[in-house]
Amino acid sequence: MSFSIAIDGPAGAGKSTIAKRIAKKMNLIYVDTGAMYRAMGIHLIRCGIGPQDEAAISRECANADITIKYENGEQVVYLNGENVNPILRTEEVGSMASACSVFKDVRAKLVQLQQKLASEVDVIMDGRDIGTVVLPNASLKVYLTASVDVRAKRRYDELIAKGEEWDLDKIKAEIAERDHRDMTRENSPLRQAEDAILVDSSDMTIDEVVDAIIKLCEGKR
Ligand code: DC
Fold first, then answer.
1. Which residue's alpha carbon is nearest to atom 15 within ligand 1?
2. 141 and 104 in one domain?
């Protein structure tokens, strides 16, 4: 069986930054599953489908050919043959990704792709349902979280550094809304798997979290 690390947690907990660093240090393939839901979100936005129109979303789901390639060590997401990496990270796309991810047809399609990837190589995979649904037998499961205030401030600093103007309270409200939707949906809600280890990064540096998770892997590989 291949080695795998599952990292779940809410938006802004630092999952992708931390998973990327661990992937480099441990020679694992980093699989960003949120990017797959975002690619689906782009497809639906382009088709002009409303975020609650389950019938249309299920129908269009079949027309979204999402594939993953690794180029220079980076995950590249292709949507119907187009590299969509440069347009994945907008608030509009994140919000549509969260909205469409509540539907079972969307989840079934992307979970299948994620499980296939993990069966072929050693991975560190992050998302919302990795430890609970995608990789129930992962070698290590981590539930990475931080307070809403800390997560909102991190996101705010990121946007300000990019030269964008944002209101901290608005970001906090959006994060709280996304948490609520991801945690209360019927299909594969975000929750800590019973055998996952809780890591609260509110008062930890990135390096401290990376070191803590690598330590948890000792003896498992
Ligand atoms: O991690 P992210 O912000 O890129 O994810 C975008 C949305 O996709 C998130 O709000 C919920 C959904 N998602 C999911 O339902 N399951 C996953 N494994 C990953 C993401």
1. 101
2. no
Whether 116 and 126 share a structural domain: no
Question: Is 126 touching ligand 1 by the criterion CB < 6 Å?
Answer: no
- How does DSSP assign 81-106, residue by residue? TEE-GGGS-SHHHHHHHHHHTTSHHH
Query: pLDDT, tens digit, for every residue of 37-50?
Result: 999 999 999 999 99
- pLDDT tens digits for range 151-189: 999 999 988 998 988 899 999 999 999 899 999 999 999
CA 219 to ligand 1 center in whole angstroms: 30
* Single pTM value for the model: 0.94
Specify the residue with its C-alpha closest to ligand 1, atom 13.
34
- Phi then psi for residue 105, to 5 deg, are -65, -35
Residue closest to 28 by CA, chosen among 221, 192, 199: 221
- What's phi and psi for 102, nearest 5 deg? -80, -15
> CB neighbours of 135 closer than 8 A, spacing ≥ 6?
4, 6, 115, 118, 125, 141
What angle separates helix 104-120 from helix 54-61, to the nearest 10 degrees? 30
CA dihedral 145, 148, 150, 156 (to 10 degrees): 120
Range of the domain at 10: 1-28+122-221
Q: How many CB atoms neighbour CB 100 within 10 A?
A: 28
- Binding site membership of 154 for ligand 1 (Cβ less than 6 Å): no
Q: Does one domain contain both 76 and 101?
A: yes
Q: Which two tokens stand for residue 198?
A: 């809780």
**Rounded to the nearest whole angstrom, what is the distance from the C-alpha of residue 128 to the centroid of ligand 1?**
6
